[in-house]
Amino acid sequence: MAYWLIKSEPFKYSWEQFEKDKTATWDGVRNYGARNNLQAMKKGDQLFR
User: Fold this and answer.
1) Do residues 3 and 41 lie in contact, with contact meaning Cβ atoms separated by under 8 Å?
2) pLDDT at 49
3) Distances (CA, A) of 20 to 25, 34, 36, 42, 49
4) 6 Cβ partners below 8 Å, 6+ apart?
């Protein structure tokens, strides 16, 4: 199990909206390191916000 720090701009997509939606697609990630980390996430991993 891995632990991930998750953040986004609140005015674009808030954590509260994510909790309502239960799922989201994060597209448009230009940073290769960030993209690779998003791809490495697995179901059951823990998130910090």
Assistant:
1) no
2) 80
3) 14, 24, 26, 20, 15
4) 47, 48, 49
Query: Which pLDDT value is given to residue 40?
Result: 96
String of DSSP letters for 1-49: --EEE----TTTS-HHHHHHHS---------HHHHHHHHH--TT-EEE-
pLDDT higher than threshold 90 for residue 2: yes
For 11-30, the pLDDT digits (tens) are: 888 888 888 998 888 788 88
